[in-house]
Each structure stands twice: as structure tokens, then as C-alpha cells.
Amino acid sequence: MAEEERISGEDRPQTGDSGIGAAIALGSASRMAADAFLAEQMQLARKQAALAEVQAEEIHEEKKLRHWSMRVRHVSDVMKLAFELSMALILLALVVGIGATVWSASHEDGLVIDAFTVPPDLAQRGVSGDVVASAV
To answer: Against a cut of 0.70, is the pTM above it?
Structure first.
């Protein structure tokens, strides 16, 4: 009790009713440590806020790039489809052309063979180029 009487009102830290015992036990060193801790936490919070801002900007840029990439991919797919359709049409036209030629040749009955020259010994026997052409 003698020690309690020596601590006057001026020596006691000015804290609330609930913190008197803690303030007496910890003293002013804990206040400086708490202030340093809070300053460090505030600095970390500022760094985290700056990092979050940088990440948000990167996400925005990545979104732009992804949108551009999707647009390019779409254009590429459309061009690929157009190429495939044009190749299919060319192939179809080629098949139809060959088929029409074969069908026309198979139904043709008017083959014309012009007169041609014959060797002299056939010509002496009376077989001329017109006769040979009609026989063929």
C-alpha cells in the first residue's frame, strides 16, 4: 500500500476506467509500440490499396485484349467458313461440269467425220476419202 500512496494523480496515465490497470502495467513503451504498429498497418493498407488499383487496371486492359482476341477469332472463323463454302461450290461446279460433259457425250449420236485423204493404191481402186469417211 505504501507504493500506491506514492503514485500521485499526475503520475497516473490518463486512460478510461477500463484501461487503468493495463496502462499502469504496460507503461508508455506499449503506447509507442502500438503507434508504430498502427503506422506500419496504415502503410501496408496504402500499399494494398495501390496494388488493388494496379490489378484493377491490368484486369481492364486484359478485358480489352480478350475482347479484341475474340473479335479476331470470330473474323477468322467467318473467313474460314467462306473459304470452305467457296471450295465446296467450286468442287460442285466441277462435278456438275464433268457430269454434263459425260451425259452429253453418252447421248450424242451425230458424229461427223470429214473426208480425208487416202493412200494412192486405194484411190486407184475407186475408194476415195468420202467413201472411207462414210464407212467409218
So the answer is: no
